[in-house]
Amino acid sequence: MGFRMAPPQDPLYAGLGQAIRIATDLLAALIVGGALGWVCDTYVFDSTPWGMIIGLLMGIVAGMRNAYRSIQRWPKT
Amino acid sequence: MEESPLHQFELQNWIPISLGGFDISINKAVVFMWIVVLVAAVLMVMAGSARKLVPGKLQSLAEMMVDFIRSMILDTMGKEGMRFFPLIASLFVFILFSNLIGLIPGSYTVTSQIIVTAVFSFLVYGLSLVMGFMLHGAKFLGILVPPGTPGWLVPLMIPIEIISQVARPVSLAVRLFANMTAGHVMLAVLFSLTIGGGLLIGWLPFAFTVAIYGLEFGIAFIQAYIFSILTCVYLGDAFHLHGHDEHAH
User: What percent of chain A has pLDDT above 70?
Assistant: First the structure.
């Protein structure tokens, strides 16, 4: 059994790493968008549901953009 | 065995210290952070002190690691990225060793505390912002408008890009923390099922425990790799404004 320093070069682990990256890219942008919307609602504009709704929608778009950007950068195998 | 699987992440203050209103008590996570730094430093110094032409086991392992980090930096940032080699190598080694040491039963995974990963990721992201503004000045704000955006879309793109920029350090921190926490919770649940199941059915969750433990070993490497390669990518973005589309590999 050969022990390699870099499991990322193993196709199985490379795929696992890519899946983990995309999942958190989508999730993190959603959290950030929702949180920014909520802060606008509660502390800035007092516009309760709307800031969070718009923030979540923009979070979805931003998450897709981040995921798309990280896919674009992957080395072609 | 009615212990919560989250019990392993609880921290008790071993030596309570309070300095100027801040709680800087010594707890298990702090002690294990010291152990990680100590183990990594001792191993790397031992590997580096031999300097043989034909390397021994330890030296060739360390050389492989340095070579791996070097090619990662050259691939993502190019030659000028090599000045960040010490930062990225230390991040990689620290995260790798704390993930691996955390897999020893009874020890503590430092990276399963979100504050540890968040400090690293916001530090890296802050560094990339500082680098960007130092190199490009106010033009660096151009990252908020991707090239080729039609004029009427700009007011919509700017908030979206702000969210996607803020999401970068958040996703970096959450990814490492969530993977480490989830893996250890899974191991704890499966192992408590093994003990609860007894000999009759307990072998089944035990087999899964062994399999997941092996997977976690790989995850420890992947997470260290992802964290350091994304550090390279974010720092590289600060260097080449909109440049990554041309020399995409």
Answer: 81
